[in-house]
Each structure stands twice: as C-alpha cells, then as structure tokens.
Write a structure and sequence with these properties.
- The chain is of the alpha+beta class and 366 residues long.
- It is 56% helix and 15% strand.
- It has a six-stranded antiparallel β-sheet with strand order 1-2-3-4-5-6.
- Helix 3 runs parallel beside helix 7 and helix 7 runs parallel beside helix 9.
Length: 366
C-alpha cells in the first residue's frame, strides 16, 4: 500500500468515527428523552431504560450510517482541497479516478457491515426490545407491591395484600378488596400470579373464594372458584404487539405481500446507500480556491434529504401498491450513483474501454 493510500484511509476512518460518534450522541439524547417520558407515564419501568436504549442502536445505525458516509468523505477530502494538498496531488498526476477507487474500497466494508445490521441485527433488536418490555411489564407491578402489607389501589378502588412474592413472581396468601360504584367484592386465595390474557396483564387466583355484599347489601354471596382472572385498576397494561420491523429477512423474502417486499428492498438499499452517498460526498467535497471548506455542505445535505425522502415515498407507494414492485427502490440509488460518478461523461473517469482494434491486431499476428 502506498503512503498516499495509508494517509487517505487514515483521514477517512478518523473522520468517519468522529462524525459517527457525534450523530450517535445526538440520536441517543433524543431516544433517551422519549424513553424517560414513557417511563414517567408508567408504561415501562425505569430499570430497563438503559437496556432498551442499547437495543435502539442498530435501528439508529441503519438511519445515520448513510449520512455519516456522506459527511465523513466530504470533510476528509474537503480538507485536502482547503489545505491545497489536492492541487499538489493533481499536479503530480493523481486524477479524480484515483480518489473514486480509494473511497469506493473504503466504503465497501462499511456497506457490508451495514448489510449485516439491516438484514439481521435490526430485526433482532426490535424483537428483543419487545420481549424485554413485555417481561418488564409483568415484573413491574410486582416491584410496586410490598409483601406483608396492605397496598392501596389508585383512586381508592381497593386494597391488595399478599404475604410473599417468590423470585418467579408467584404470590401466596392473596387478599384483594375491590370496591367501586359497580361492585364490592373480596377475593382470597392461597396462590396467585400475573399472566398475559387477551394482550392485557391480569391477576390470576387459584382455589380461592369470593365474597359479595359485605357492607349490608340485600344479599351476601360466597363463591368458591378454581381459577379467577381479573384486571386490577393499576395494571391496565397491554402486551407490545409484533411489528413489521422485527420480521426476519428470510421471511420477507418468501412473502408476496407488497409491504413485506417494500421492507425487504429498504433493507437491501440501505447498504448500497453507503457507497452512493459516500461517492456523492467525494463529488461535493471539491471546492475552489476562495470557497470555504463547508461551502458545499448545505447543498449536500439537501441532496441527502431529497434522496432519503424519495426512498421513503417509493417504499410507502410499494406498500400501498401504487408503485410497481418489480421496479422497486433501485432507480433512486442508481440515479444518484450516476450523478456521483459524472465528470462530464456518464462513464467513470477511472474506467477505460478496451481497445478492441489492438486486441484484434494481436490475434491476427499470432
């Protein structure tokens, strides 16, 4: 590897890591604020906030990696133009095609890493996040309950008591008083637990008794039950449902639904966007003698927004069956790829057409 190659790759890698760190911190700050708001509302316990935040890293990488590729190449190569190093290199015979090839080989491993993130890691992270939240919602009410103490329910709707709570979440010697305008009932059972029923968290009591009409009603009723299922006022939680983002890529490949095909093409186009936007950043990094280092940054960000919005619009149109699936998302990255390589001709400057006449003459001589 030449000295110039090592120098260029070092600059690209250092800038890439710096831009990635900054954008990840911004993304984490936004996601942490949203999660704190959800935790304050009581929808998820605060003890799992950090784990949920970690599971949001792969989806965040899927979004910001193309932008990181664009900005890092622009900043790294733009510094060469700003410090007049590019003028010296070009005077030594280093062409634009050299930089296109080196940037391409720098972006190729990043595109492969992004493909692994989008095709496998992101669906897995969505699934693990859903399972973690579901498990935490089961243990959350247990954390709020104090064994051996009468725990009042909100709005004065009753009292809950259990003598002991095991590590597995089993309850022993359960005593529940539910008193509202519609009902007044006392439930006792030697055993109980919390279960998901109809996607809602319910209290299940086993081999117990219920007492109705305790405060001088017309009738006093005692019933024995083998299994009681009820929803306490403070436990009106719903099980997180499976989303399309956690469907594995092989299932999407075998599906014929337009929405699944659109999601699959999105996962395949994202790694390609690393190469496309990186080469676009190389094109936009070129600045004149009196232009600032960030002169083309605004225009490059506008192109990124247009590129991303076109992909989102095409994806939604495919899901709604208003855009042909066989065309898909591919024309958008190919169009931007052609623009990134355009140097007065659609043919890349580093590509040389074979001289068929010379090859034919050699064959005749032989």
């Amino acid at each position: 590897m030449r000295i110039l190659d090592r120098y260029l790759y070092k600059e690209l890698l250092a800038t890439f890591l710096a831009v990635l760190s900054v954008l990840l911190l911004i993304t984490f700050g936004t996601e942490a604020t949203k999660l704190l708001a959800v935790a304050v509302e009581g929808r998820i316990p605060s003890t799992i906030l950090f784990k949920v935040l970690l599971y949001k890293i792969p989806p965040a990488l899927e979004v910001i990696l193309p932008l990181v590729a664009l900005l890092s190449v622009m900043l790294a190569v733009g510094r060469l133009y700003q410090d007049r190093e590019m003028v010296v290199l070009q005077s030594c015979g280093i062409s634009v095609g050299y930089f296109q090839k080196r940037v391409f080989w720098f972006l190729l491993p990043l595109a492969l890493l992004t493909a692994w993130v989008t095709l496998w890691l992101t669906p897995w992270s969505y699934q693990q996040e859903r399972l973690l939240v579901a498990e935490a919602q089961v243990s959350s009410p247990l954390a709020a309950l104090v064994p051996g103490k009468f725990n009042p329910l909100p709005n004065g709707e009753g009292v809950f008591y259990t003598r002991e709570i095991s590590k597995q979440g089993d309850l022993s010697s359960v005593w529940v008083r539910l008193k509202t305008d519609e009902q007044d009932v006392l439930l006792t059972a030697p055993q109980g637990r919390f279960e998901w029923i109809d996607e809602r968290l319910a209290l299940v009591l086993l081999d117990g008794h219920s007492y109705e009409g305790l405060e001088g009603g017309e009738t006093f009723t005692v019933r024995r039950f083998e299994r009681f299922e009820g929803f306490l006022p403070q436990l009106q939680m719903r099980l997180p449902s499976e989303t399309k983002f956690e469907i594995d890529s092989l299932t999407l490949w075998a599906s014929a639904l337009p929405g699944d095909q659109a999601q699959l093409q999105w996962r395949l186009v994202t790694p390609l966007s690393i190469v496309v936007l990186g080469l676009l950043g190389l094109k936009m990094s070129r600045t004149g003698p009196r232009e600032g280092r960030f002169g083309q940054m605004f225009f490059a960000l506008v192109l990124y927004v247009v590129y991303n919005q076109l992909l989102v619009t095409a994806k939604e149109s495919m899901a709604n069956e208003t855009w042909p699936i066989w065309i898909g998302l591919w024309p958008i990255p190919l169009l931007f790829f052609a623009y990134a390589l355009y140097q007065g001709s659609l043919k890349p400057v580093w590509f040389v057409w074979p001289d068929w006449r010379r090859l034919t003459q050699r064959e005749r001589v032989q």
